[in-house]
Structure formats: C-alpha cells, structure tokens
C-alpha cells in the first residue's frame, strides 16, 4: 500500500484520482493518453484515466488500480508524479462536487486497450483537445504538465459544464 496524500491533506469532498500517462514517440513528440468516456458522468468527454477512491484506499493505490481497470496498463505508485489537487464545485448538482488528485506517469507497462469505461487515445501534449475535455482542463493542465504544482478550485455553472469561477491565478472567464 502506498502513502496516502502526496499533495497534503484532502478535503471532506468525495475523492477521485486522475492519471495522465505520457510517452515520447519515435519522432520525439511527447504524447498524453486520454480516454473517451463511454458512460456515466462526463460521457463522451476525453479524460485522464481515473475515478473514485474505494473505501480505505489511498489516492496513489486508487490511481494504480484505475489506470489498469480503464486501460489494461500497469503503473507503479512510486512512478506517479503529483501534479494537482483540484476541487470541483457544482452548486446546482452538489452530488457532483468532488476533489481530484492528478498525477503524471511516464513509466508504465503494456499498451492501452479499450475497456468498458473508455476508449484510449494518445494526443500531442502541445495540442491537447481541450474543446473535448472538461472545461477546467484548459486552465490548469498545461501548467501542470509543464511542471507547476497546482492547487485550485473550479465552480461549474447551472449548465453543469462551464466553469464560472476559479481561484487559479490567470483564469479569465467569459
Ligand atoms: C480535467 O479533467 C476533469 N475535470 C473535471 N471537472 N472532472 C473530471 C476530469 N476528469 C475526470 N473527471 C471526473 C468525472 C467523474 O466525476 C470522475 C471520475 O469518475 P468515473 O465515473 O470515471 O469514476 P469511476 O470510479 O471510474 O466510476 P465508477 O465508480 O462509476 O466506475 O472525475
């Protein structure tokens, strides 16, 4: 079992984890593995591999388990690099509010395969498809993948899809 909280204590919100696998392809381009969610919350969106923590599970152990369940790929907890601790608030659907711990991992075994939960696909790090991802991703993920450790909150509007406020410096919203 791995240590519980690589980015400090978690809040009382429901906890989820997400892991962005990265690799450098034959032409030297860094790619990030995303998956198109086949069902549930965020169906149709491209997301990192991850999901809810099970009772008593550490966030690192959850990330190891979710990566395997969703893609067949094996990662080790010690290879997970903490990127971000994010709080998502949905005032119009409080049951969706949650806290996410995000990791990057560039060391893994196996090739991603489609699972019951998602269809995996590699994307260029420099050209991530933000228009097909959760709205918050465009604000923090490029910073995190460039090496910043992020702690931020995002509040979603009544459409349950659009970020309407955030405490992350530099975020400008329409
Ligand atoms: C930028 O990426 C994300 N932003 C936001 N706002 N939310 C995200 C992002 N990536 C994933 N999520 C959310 C969507 C879901 O609430 C959770 C993951 O849930 P999931 O349903 O995949 O969790 P599982 O544990 O796999 O589901 P089951 O327990 O139902 O199998 O994170």
TrEMBL record:
Per the record, GO CC terms?
A: cytoplasm
Entry EC no(s): 3.6.1.56
EC class of the enzyme, as a word: hydrolase
What keywords tag this UniProt record?
Hydrolase, Magnesium, Metal-binding
- Cofactors (names): Mg(2+)
Tell me the SUPFAM superfamilies matching this sequence: Nudix (SSF55811)
Hydrolase listed as a keyword:
yes
Residue span of the signal peptide, if any? none
GO biological process terms, semicolon-separated: DNA protection
Which Pfam family would be a valid example here?
NUDIX
Q: Spell out the InterPro entries in the cross-references.
A: 8ODP, NUDIX_hydrolase-like_dom_sf, NUDIX_hydrolase_CS, NUDIX_hydrolase_dom
Q: GO: which molecular function terms?
A: 8-oxo-7,8-dihydroguanosine triphosphate pyrophosphatase activity; dATP diphosphatase activity; metal ion binding
Quickly give the catalysed reaction: 2-oxo-dATP + H2O = 2-oxo-dAMP + diphosphate + H(+); 8-oxo-dGTP + H2O = 8-oxo-dGMP + diphosphate + H(+); 2-oxo-ATP + H2O = 2-oxo-AMP + diphosphate + H(+); N(6)-methyl-ATP + H2O = N(6)-methyl-AMP + diphosphate + H(+)
* Domain Nudix hydrolase stretches: 12-149
Q: What does this protein do?
A: Oxidized purine nucleoside triphosphate hydrolase which is a prominent sanitizer of the oxidized nucleotide pool. Catalyzes the hydrolysis of 2-oxo-dATP (2-hydroxy-dATP) into 2-oxo-dAMP. Also has a significant hydrolase activity toward 2-oxo-ATP, 8-oxo-dGTP and 8-oxo-dATP. Through the hydrolysis of oxidized purine nucleoside triphosphates, prevents their incorporation into DNA and the subsequent transversions A:T to C:G and G:C to T:A. Also catalyzes the hydrolysis of methylated purine nucleoside triphosphate preventing their integration into DNA.
Q: How would you summarize the oligomeric state and partners of this protein?
A: Monomer.
Its family remark reads: Belongs to the Nudix hydrolase family.
Fetch the PANTHER family from UniProt: 7,8-DIHYDRO-8-OXOGUANINE TRIPHOSPHATASE, OXIDIZED PURINE NUCLEOSIDE TRIPHOSPHATE HYDROLASE
Name of the protein in its database record: Oxidized purine nucleoside triphosphate hydrolase
């Amino acid at each position: 079992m791995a240590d519980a909280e690589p980015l400090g204590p978690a809040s009382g919100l429901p906890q989820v984890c997400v892991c962005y696998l990265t690799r450098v392809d034959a032409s030297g381009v860094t790619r990030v593995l995303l998956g198109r969610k086949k069902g549930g919350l965020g169906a149709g969106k491209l997301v990192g591999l991850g999901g809810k923590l099970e009772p008593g599970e550490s966030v690192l152990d959850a990330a190891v388990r979710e990566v395997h369940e969703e893609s067949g790929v094996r990662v080790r907890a010690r290879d997970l690099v903490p990127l971000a601790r994010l709080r998502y608030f949905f005032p119009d659907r409080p049951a969706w509010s949650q806290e996410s711990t995000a990791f990057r991992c560039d060391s893994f075994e196996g090739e991603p395969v489609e699972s019951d939960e998602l269809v995996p696909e590699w994307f260029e790090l420099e050209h991530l498809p933000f228009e097909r991802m959760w709205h918050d991703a465009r604000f923090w993920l490029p910073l995190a993948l460039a090496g910043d450790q992020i702690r931020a909150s995002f509040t979603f509007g009544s459409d349950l899809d659009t970020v309407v406020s955030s405490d992350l410096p530099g975020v400008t919203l329409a």
